[in-house]
Amino acid sequence: MKKIIFFVAILISHIGIAQITQRNIFAKKYTVDDVKKALIPFNEYHPYPKTPEEWQAAVPDSVLKQIVKNGENLLDFKFEAISGTVSLDYVRSGDRERHGKLSYGKRNALTDLLLAESIENKGRFMEAIFNGVWSICEESYWGVPAHIRGLPDVENPVVDLFSAETASLMGLVDYFVGEKLDKISKLIRKRMYYETNKRIFEPMMTKADSYGWMSKTKPVNNWNPWIMSNWISATLLLEKDEKRRAEMLYGTMLGTDLYLNGLGEDGGCDEGPSYWFAAGASVYDCLELLSNATKNQINIYEEPLIKKMASYVYKTHIDGYYFVNFADADPKLRPDGLMLYRFGNAIKDEKMIQMGQWAFRNFSSASMGGSYHRPRRIENLLSIKQLPKETMPYIPVNDAWFADIQVLTARAKNGFFMATHGGHNAESHNHNDVGDFMLYANGEPVIIDAGRGNYTARTFSNKRYELWFTQSNYHNLPIINGFGQKDGRQFEATNVKSTISEKEATLSLDIAGAYEKEAGIQSWNRTVKLNRVKNTVELTDDYVLSNKPTSLQQVFMTICTIDTSIAGKILLKTPKGQVVSLQYDPKIWDLSIELPSTEGMEYVSFKTKWDNLPVQRIILNAKSLVQKSKNSFTLGLN
What we know:
Layout: H1 25-29, H2 32-38, H3 52-58, H4 61-72, H5 84-87, H6 89-92, H7 97-120, H8 126-138, H9 161-184, H10 187-206, H11 223-238, H12 242-262, H13 273-276, H14 280-293, H15 304-315, E1 317-319, E2 322-323, H16 337-347, H17 350-362, H18 365-368, H19 374-383, E3 399-402, E4 407-411, E5 416-421, E6 424-425, E7 437-441, E8 444-447, E9 478-480, E10 488-492, E11 494-500, E12 504-510, E13 521-531, E14 536-545, E15 552-558, E16 561-566, E17 569-573, E18 579-583, E19 589-594, E20 616-622, E21 628-637
Antiparallel strand pairs: 1-2, 3-4, 4-5, 5-7, 6-10, 7-8, 9-15, 11-12, 12-13, 13-14, 14-21, 15-20, 16-17, 17-18, 18-21, 19-20
Helix pairs in contact: 2-12, 4-7, 7-8, 7-9, 8-9, 8-10, 9-10, 9-11, 10-11, 11-12, 11-14, 16-17
Protein name: Heparinase II/III-like C-terminal domain-containing protein
Domain Heparinase II/III-like C-terminal: 401-542
InterPro entries: Chondroitin_lyas, Hepar_II_III_C
């Protein structure tokens, strides 16, 4: 077998240094010869419907009609060229949106046109499809400038998330309408394969494995399984050389091993739930594609790690569309219910099946569209009729502890949901937030992690921690002698302990190590407790400093209406009228409130992110500055 050497693109996110467990699940279980023997030949591989009759048998008529209508709306879509000026926006101004609007817009339009034509089969979408394919093939780079820091070197193709997505799209075009394209010109499909081979297949098979998302020594993030899933799809649908086809698939298996090797034993995703849908869910995409293409001969669904990795998503679900959003994760998601349902069935996880059914009932559009993961979208369409008419109720889990990423989630009978974590400050998509916590009351945010802003050049540069939403000063954490936490792997929690019982769910940890030495902290033992007897959240900081401090502050972030008229009690009113009291000692603390900036391209999303409510920072300033003390705060429904 030709030696497989993997290439990796420049990462957009920080990758933490943690221990790698050389599980190598695929490599230990299968060889490339196993893949060659099991793989369905190219000419016999027919994973999706191709005729109107096949579509009608597999997908509800109402869904098919909507897909055709979506295609009709795009018959006059203009597939614009991407200029050099737009390609340099990222370098010149830091903006990513103008390029993204053009690039993603073309690919989304092509996908909708493609499905409409396959479903209808009258040829009326073909000219638009041809123009879309040709326009994309004419691009110098299939990815985004942010991932190569400007213009592409066409002699050195770079594989990134969106070049891989485009390769998968080329495979789908070839599968669904390839023969119709031949009637326009025999050169179109030839061009599609040529470009995909040059931009994806050859780099993935021949370039040095010295890049982050294929590292054998460091944990890799969502880039790995996301790209692997698209490489698999493109390979299955475009590569006719059976030997090379099997070798590339085996390469994707070894590549997926690298992501699984970087997970802890609990399968936690340090990037947060919104990124899990690109990470853990993309692992499922890989497993599903491989299993279906080998008549279930390549199958690792029974591996305990896969089951634990999957369970992360429902263990971090708060309520409705709210999920735990540490790091760059978004607070609100519309979860893909059909994918969750299929994944749950594959691993025999009843809770995930129930969550999938619930999510599809409440957020069906999340399973039907989207800009990425196109093979997943098609599999979703084909699974709608598989859903049972009567579904079991979905009851979120009561608590969970992920020792690998040091995340605790827990609920109380009064509707409180608390999440808190330790970890370190070099996690993927890191914010400096060791010891942070959040509180929701009956599904409404009270104490929040504000989340991330808009991605720009500054977001993933050495200026990342100049942005307020990445700083510990804008998380629910102390500011000590004017110092917030510092970014880097060495800045971490120590003496971390989790306790879960019927009476409480508690995380205790020393967060002193997350700050620079200049902060002058000997120890800062923080305890975050959900008291299930009193239905309160109790925050305690027991600290010893090297010297008497010059300043000491405690921060709480919220979107609630704030009432400070009662000394020692901050009343936080949610949009639905719930009132949560935050009790503090007024003899120790002065109180002020600030509104973080929403001006500038990185902050625009904060105008609307929290249902148009402003993010506010409550700052308690210590009146009496002492070297050693123990401070407590209590949150309860008023």
